[in-house]
Amino acid sequence: MKSKEEKVYLVGECGPEHNILRSIHKTHKGAFKAWNKLRKDLLENAKSHLKKFDEDTNDMYETMVKNLSCEDPKLIDNFPHDTPYLREDKIEK
């Protein structure tokens, strides 16, 4: 029997010491919605830490806010901090 390949979309977050798969979607639209929610959650977390620490730490969180404000999953880069991703993959059905 011949196997059929199907596209799926993976949403997660990665950093220098972790890669967490959050969800798998059948459509890019659904994956983008989940990716954007994850991005906004990470962004709000970074914003909440602003002004709580010393100047060097604030600079780090300001950079994170700037990086996480990118609304394009192909261009976003928040390394070495948590970066949300949306990846296309194939599975055999």
Q: Helix and strand layout, with pairings?
A:
Layout: E1 5-15, E2 18-25, H1 28-49, H2 55-68, E3 83-92
**What structural class do the secondary elements suggest?**
alpha+beta
Output the radius of gyration. Answer: 16 Å
Rounded average pLDDT: 93
- How many beta strands in the DSSP annotation? 3
Count every helix, treating DSSP H or I runs of 4 or more residues as helices: 2
Biggest sheet strand order reads: 2-1-3
First CA to last CA: what distance?
Answer: 11 Å
Low-confidence stretches: none
- Global geometry: elongated
Element string (H = helix, E = strand): EEHHE
Provide the helix percentage.
25-40%
Largest sheet: 3 strands, antiparallel
Tell me what portion of residues adopts beta-strand conformation. Answer: 25-35%
Description:
This protein has helices at residues 28-49, 55-68; strands at 5-15, 18-25, 83-92. The protein has one domain. It is an alpha+beta fold and 93 residues long. The mean pLDDT is 93. The protein has two helices and three strands.
Please tag this protein with its features.
single chain; 2 helices; 31% strand; alpha+beta; elongated; three-stranded antiparallel beta sheet; 93 residues
